[in-house]
Design goal:
Elements lengths: L2 E13 L5 E13 L3 E6 L5 H8 L7 E6 L2 E2 L7 E4 L11 H11 L4 H14 L15 H13 L5 E5 L7 H16 L7 E6 L2 H7 L2 E6 L4 E7 L11 H15 L25 H11 L7 E3 H8 L3 H13 L3 E4 L2 E4 L1 H8 L2 H15 L1 H11 L5 E3 L1 H7 L5 H17 L4 E3 L4 E3 L2 H4 L1
Parallel strand pairs: 3-8, 3-9, 6-7, 7-8
Antiparallel strand pairs: 1-2, 1-4, 4-5, 9-10, 11-13, 12-13, 14-16, 15-16
Length: 431
């Protein structure tokens, strides 16, 4: 198969707040061939969006080789278009004008611009809305405009960065199916698509290959070919087996070659999963009920909990980190401590949660130790944010610290004053 995009040993880093270099991507090998759809799955902050921008030529790689149609890529490629999670439409322009923007920038004559834009608008099902403003459209219609704006350029390569995640489930599914119908019917000008997603079912329904992206730094760690013909039925046994396999790959320590990967030791700068304590407890209680009896297949757990993949995976990761459950082969297993936790009183749960937090989350243990060294038992949050910013961007550092604080408050490890930004020992410890 003819390669349209090829990446070899690609690396990318950004400067942290203190001036040190933070590695975002490292040793990334990737090949997007003509005639295929590839889905890329991975945690938030793993560098997937950065990778797409490198492929599009929007930002340069620090190291490695990036090629489009066999030629080195040193800037924006005319044959590569992107569709973003945010609709990114100009609110003062009509649908027609928004779709024509790229053609106008490329110097296409007015008459040809209008004709090509009308065809693209009709192709994605918005005929009759050419004169509408974005505020007059639903979310699904606005995303269609973003798609038409990309397709009107007739790009050989289409990169979709969480293109359906801002839509409700039904709208996103409908738009995804319509895109697949156009693709399989040969109506799209695009020759290859790369779809970044958080939705495992979406990836399996669309892709010819699913790649699992690792974090810290970002790299391809596993690959799953999918040979099922489209259209695919989400409830078919074949699709459900593939979804199970993706869950297994996302939660197991294996490399792209299938070799076992050494489990990373907890580190001060670990990116803690976005996991609410109340939801963690609810998921653990569901895991321990009569239906699951302490062991659940993750896709079943998603269905029973009525949460999304994007919500359940961080919760499962958090329970695993805290030793209350274990991830194994795409299943979540309650540990003996997890059983005791579910059966315990509210006070007992808090005590166990705090103990496990100090044992398994170095950031929480470091903050607690630092507070104990202070005469008044309190410190500003800034030093901890600065420390985290050495290995992640400021926004991610703030998110990680916020998660650590919420977990610590539940486990009565330390408290936080939202008015002053001070972290302090619990009152009972201060006394």
């Amino acid at each position: 198969m003819t390669a349209l995009i090829e990446l070899k040993d690609v690396a990318k880093g950004f400067k942290s707040a203190d001036g040190s270099l933070r590695s975002v991507l490292d040793d990334v090998d990737f090949r997007l061939a003509k005639g295929e759809i590839v889905a890329l799955l991975g945690q938030s902050g793993s560098g997937k969006s950065t990778l797409l921008r490198i492929m599009a030529g929007l930002i340069p790689a620090d190291a490695g080789d990036v090629r489009y149609r066999g030629q080195p890529l040193f800037g924006p490629a005319q044959g590569i278009a992107m569709v973003f999670q945010s609709f990114a439409l100009f609110p003062w322009l009509t649908v027609q004008q928004n779709v024509e923007l790229g053609l106008e920038a490329a110097g296409v004559a007015e008459a040809e611009r209008a004709e090509r834009a009308e065809k693209a608008i009709e192709l994605i099902g918005l005929a009759g809305f050419e004169g509408a403003l974005p505020r007059e459209l639903s979310g699904g219609m606005r995303q269609r405009v973003g798609l038409a704006r990309a397709l009107v350029m007739e790009p050989p390569v289409l990169l979709m960065d969480e293109a359906f995640s801002a839509l409700d489930v039904l709208t996103g599914e409908r738009l995804r199916n319509e895109i697949l119908e156009l693709w399989d019917g040969g109506q799209m000008p695009t020759q290859a698509m790369l779809v970044v997603s958080h939705n495992i079912e979406e990836a399996v329904m669309m892709a010819d290959r699913v790649l699992i992206f690792a974090s810290n730094p970002g790299r391809v760690r596993a690959e799953l070919p999918i040979t099922l013909p489209r259209p695919r039925r989400a409830d078919s046994p074949e699709v459900r087996l593939l979804i199970d396999e993706v869950y297994r790959l996302m939660t197991s320590a294996t490399t792209v070659t299938g070799a076992p990967e050494e489990a990373p030791r907890p580190h001060l700068s670990d990116r803690l999963p976005e996991a609410d304590v109340g939801r963690m407890e609810s998921l653990l209680e569901l895991l321990g009920d009569e239906h699951f009896r302490g062991r659940a297949d993750l896709p079943q757990l998603v269905e029973e909990s009525e949460l999304t993949d994007e919500e359940v995976l961080p919760l499962a990761d958090a329970l695993h980190r805290l030793g209350l459950a274990q991830l194994s082969g795409g299943d979540l297993l309650m540990t003996p401590l997890g059983h005791n936790y579910v059966e315990g009183s509210h006070e007992f749960r808090r005590e166990i949660f705090g103990q496990q937090l100090l044992t398994n989350v170095p950031l929480a243990a470091f903050i607690r130790h630092s507070l104990e060294q202070e005469a008044d038992g309190e410190l500003k949050e800034e030093p901890f944010l600065k420390l985290l910013s050495e290995s992640m961007d400021v926004q991610e550092a703030e998110r990680v610290l916020r998660v650590a604080i919420e977990w610590a408050r539940h486990g009565e490890v330390f408290e936080y004053n939202y008015h002053t930004g001070m972290i302090h020992l619990p009152e009972s410890d201060e006394d």
